[in-house]
Every structure is written in structure tokens, then in C-alpha cells.
Amino acid sequence: MAKTIGLMGAMDEEIALLLERVENQETAVIAGIRFVKGSLHGKDVVVCKSGVGKVNAALAAQLLIDRFEAGAIWFTGVAGAVHPDLDVGDIVISSSCQQHDMDASPLGYPRGTVPYQEVSDFPADPVFIALAEEACTRLCRDHKYIVGRVLSGDQFIADRGFVSSVLYGEMEGACVEMEGAALAQVCGMNRVPFVVLRSISDKADGSADVNFAEFTKLAAQRSFEILNDMVQHL
Ligand code: SAH
């Protein structure tokens, strides 16, 4: 089992509750990203806020692996719904992560496929998926969870037509966000197991400007609760 677990979020709201609970904190700032080392439920962890988007997430993931010897990375955060059954507050556990904005289709590659690369849809670790499912079974009372494909791109998606035709219809995604596939690719290339947990903050349908800030706090808290339970039961 991994010695140190890297716990990552993209925004302050997503890691705030973790930082309240990590003991014996030591802080380091590298490339403008703050990493907080410490222990959570007796396990060695490093918490970081990557910032929004794929480049930030990739950088933070590689630093967690290289500088903090993270043997696993777990992401906690919020996402837009892609699967039609999902409502605000529901949970998605990544089965895999893929970039929806990687598009070399004029060259004959299906959307999401990185040219000349063996894997483009990076599978999450089955043990971590099971651990997350057990946590959801314990904690998801008035909301549901699904295990499914997390789609990532450097765009805030607010177009239900694009979601249903491309992200759900073509790419069979469960939710859409801006970091998961980047850290998944870094983890895949480094042979480091990962899982991404996302709670739904919006329906990716254009109403996000109205409800995003309001629901982000609740959704980030739900995702944190699952992750916290996973650390406890590891
Ligand atoms: N807090 C910022 C917005 C951050 S961008 C603001 O209010 O100005 C959105 C963040 O939430 C990203 O980290 C992304 O991973 C996630 N996210 C939630 N819903 C999303 C959606 N519909 N499309 C893309 N990313 C989404």
C-alpha cells in the first residue's frame, strides 16, 4: 500500500475541510503551489490545491510524485453532470478519466484520443474505486453515487446539447470537469494509482452562473466526506 497519499483539489473550497483535519502540518511552496504534509487518521498525506485546469493538475501531480513521494493520488472536487440521472450533490467515482478537448479527429482519431499514445482513457485503481464505493454506501443517504468515466477539458461546460450529444452520447461520460484526466495521465505514465471523486455542483447546462457558487460548497463537502472516510478505512 502506498506510503504517502497525495490528496488534491483544484480550488480552496475543495481542500479547506481536509486542511482543517490534517495534523502535524509542514508547508512547502513549489512552482506557486502550496503543499501541506501531515497525517490524517494516522496516514501520511500531502494535500495540495493544484489550481484550475489540466496544466495545473498535471504539474501538481508530478510534483506530488517527485518531491513528496506520493504513492497514490486521490482527487476531491466538484463537477458538472453528464449522466442524465445525476443531480446536484450526487457523487461520481472515476472508473477512468479522459480528455474531451483532445481532438485530432481531422487525422482520423476519435475524440479524446491522444495521437501516437497507447492509452488515452486512463483507468482508476480498482482497490481505490472499491474503497470509494464502500464509503459511498456508508455515507450517501439522500443522494446517489455512480462509478463512471470522468471527462476533463480546459473549458467550463454550460451547454446541455454538447453534453448530451458529445460528452454522453459519443464519449459515454458520467461528469465533466477540468483536471481529472490530466492527473490521471501523469499517474498512468508514472505507474501511480489514482482515483477521482467528484460531487455534482451543476448540470453543465448554462444555469451554473446562478447556482455554481451556492452548490460548490455543499458538493465539495460531500466529496471531502467520502475521501475522509476512505482514508479512515484504508
Ligand atoms: N470558482 C470559480 C470557477 C472555477 S472553474 C468561479 O466561480 O469563478 C470550475 C471548477 O469546477 C473546475 O475546477 C472544474 O474542475 C469544476 N467544474 C464544475 N462544474 C464544471 C463544468 N460544468 N464544466 C467544467 N468544469 C466544472
UniProtKB/TrEMBL annotation:
Keywords: Amino-acid biosynthesis, Glycosidase, Hydrolase, Methionine biosynthesis. One of its GO terms (biological process) is L-methionine salvage from methylthioadenosine. The keyword Coiled coil does not apply. Residues 4-231 form the Nucleoside phosphorylase domain. InterPro entries: MTA_SAH_Nsdase, Nucleoside_phosphorylase_d, Nucleoside_phosphorylase_sf. Pathway: Amino-acid biosynthesis; L-methionine biosynthesis via salvage pathway; S-methyl-5-thio-alpha-D-ribose 1-phosphate from S-methyl-5'-thioadenosine (hydrolase route): step 1/2. Its EC number is 3.2.2.9. GO terms for cellular component: cytosol. Pfam families: PNP_UDP_1. This is adenosylhomocysteine nucleosidase. The gene is mtnN.
